[in-house]
Amino acid sequence: MSDFANELFRRKAEQAARELADAERDAIAVGKEPFDVARLDTLLGEPPGTSADKAHDLRESYYVVHRQMRTLAEFAAHLKQIANW
């Protein structure tokens, strides 16, 4: 891969990490339930560890994409709903 492409991917990853850190900080300030992948699996009715390989993406979705959701139960209900699409 070219140096340009590597730099582009590096910057994008840094930006995403900053956005996640900012969103997590904001969530703590407003009392949002902390992300817990084991609890999410329970709420989804999945065996423990089912979502472990997707934990980073789920965490990012919970904190960055779905900032308005305050609980893992809300997030789990959303995930169940979109799984049926």
Structure description:
This protein is mainly α and 85 residues long. Helices cover 69% and strands 0% of the residues. It has helices at residues 3-30, 37-44, 55-65, 72-83. Helix 1 crosses helix 3 and helix 2 packs across helix 4. It is globular, with a radius of gyration of 15 Å. The mean pLDDT is 96.
Count of domain modules:
1
Task: Name the average pLDDT.
Answer: 96
Query: From the alpha-carbon coordinates, what is the Rg to the nearest angstrom?
Result: 15 Å
Shape: globular
Helix run count:
4
Sheet having the most strands? none
How helical, in percent, are the residues? Answer: 55-70%
The number of distinct β-strands equals 0
Terminal residue distance: 36 Å
Point out poorly predicted stretches. none
Question: What is the fold's blueprint, element by element?
Answer:
Blueprint: H1 3-30, H2 37-44, H3 55-65, H4 72-83
Helix pairs in contact: 1-3, 2-4
